[in-house]
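Re: weekly structure request thread

Next one in the queue (125 aa):
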Amino acid sequence: MSRLFFEELRIPRPDIDLEVEAARTPGRPHDHGALRADPARAEAHLVLVVGDVNSTLACSLTAVKLGRRGPRRGGLRAFDRTMPEEINRLVTDAVSDLLFVSEPSGLDNLSREGVPEARVHFWAT
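Done, posted below.
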């Protein structure tokens, strides 16, 4: 799907593409078994991930396994663990070194979850 975004929005392709994919099995719209990322191509020292989709989770896990610092916009919660995106948010926040919070509720959520203040940075736009 990212290929479509680059083409349709006419934005430049990244210097490094981890080719993260989340394949879906027919009849199982939330099948996460086909996530893949090629860690050998992850040359960056810092990996910034955004969102709450499967590729966000895959990039976060790849970054932490390679010892790369991984900031992300964090702390947002729906409080519904039946949502795949909510699980992606929780796990990605747990493994990220830095969390950039865009609203006060994110600060409250991360504090309640015991995330050290040194990892959390409020960044209002």
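The domain at 37-122 is CATH 3.40.50.2000 (Rossmann fold). Residues 39 and 62 are 6 Å apart (CA to CA).
Next request, please.
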